[in-house]
Write a structure and sequence with these properties.
The complex is a heterotetramer, with 2 copies of chain A and 2 copies of chain C. By secondary structure, chain A is an alpha+beta fold. Chain A is built from 3 helices and 5 strands; from the N terminus they run βαβααβββ. Chain A has a 5-stranded mixed beta sheet with strand order 2-1-5-3-4. The chains are: A alpha+beta, C alpha+beta.
Chain lengths: 83, 83, 148, 148
Amino acid sequence: MKILYFAWLRERLNRGEEHVSPPAEVATVSDLIDWLAARDEAFAHAVSKRSLIRAAVDARLVPHDAPIAGAGVVALFPPMTGG
Amino acid sequence: MKILYFAWLRERLNRGEEHVSPPAEVATVSDLIDWLAARDEAFAHAVSKRSLIRAAVDARLVPHDAPIAGAGVVALFPPMTGG
Amino acid sequence: MPVRVTTEPFDPGAETNAFLAAGQGAGAAVTFTGVVRSSPDDPVTSLTLECYPELAINQLEAILADATARFELLAATVIHRYGTLAPGEPIVQVMTLSPHRAAAFRGAEFLMDYLKTDAPFWKQESGPNGTVWVAPRDEDDTAKARWS
Amino acid sequence: MPVRVTTEPFDPGAETNAFLAAGQGAGAAVTFTGVVRSSPDDPVTSLTLECYPELAINQLEAILADATARFELLAATVIHRYGTLAPGEPIVQVMTLSPHRAAAFRGAEFLMDYLKTDAPFWKQESGPNGTVWVAPRDEDDTAKARWS
């Protein structure tokens, strides 16, 4: 599974993407964030305010309770500021 | 004093402008319309619904009770449909 | 020239670009373009606009000054054609510039609502059944009334 | 192409003209153009937009479909740039076409309100004091909320 990071989340993690293989019990976006945070203190710190983290699964915007089973790409990013 | 007519008022009167010399007691736009109507049956008929007549004095939109003393040009026309 | 009343065709995109070029540093620009409408249900072969140019310029300048003050616009322009136009041809264009998009949108709508009822143009539509003066629409009075 | 997400500059007026040319017979077109803002009080030397293009295209297509249905638009287009832009350069343009001006205005505002909060772009402003990520504005959430 490929994870993408954007904007200040990308900067704080110092990477735009990574490949991870979470175990099967990591079922939702929320679970994935918890699992990534448990592995990496910098990540845990960057996502400590969960309400500031948005997610997309396979280029579809999803809520944190969305399933990630079978997902190829999960993206995590701050609130969008386009336009 | 020059009088201008526009749109269907111009068409119904069969003229776009005319020069008139109303007497001094013709003090307002409303007086002028009455005075013109008294002279000309076609005019009286065309302006019979007064709420459909708009007026400008010297290229300024005015209400019917506006004075016309000293005016060079009075314009009479139907509701505007621009844009 | 923020008010232009003309029988000459104008190029909507070129006008927008000139307007934007003059407003470097502002964030939000809105352009409204009204074109001669024609549809299979209601075919129009041409639209003729009659105009009283001196009054049109006075009225449009007053409407622009009002909009500019009310919405704190950085710039605003109105272009209005008259004469005989073919379907698809631009009749009117208003452009507004503001630091914020809400003001730019409000300003452009205000200008259109006012000029529909307060600018001395009269439309005459020609189609397969003849030529008729376009009647004023109650909606246009309603649209204008919401600003007061 | 009703959605375009690109690092290439675009020409606002040329886009408006192409949009109008495709919509002959409709009465009302609105173009909103957002440009990189800079002012003496708040000088910006450049604006960099980060983007997740695949998601941006999906989101913008969904927003366009929603606007088109909701306001019965005849056509609608969104162009959004990313990369590094100078003050005065166009960032975003939305265009709407409708038989009626109110729908064209409403549609363009709806598109702007939604894309401000729902399209995956992130702005970073550079000025004399350094480079900062632009914070989301509460007003943008408020603006979006009024449509629901």
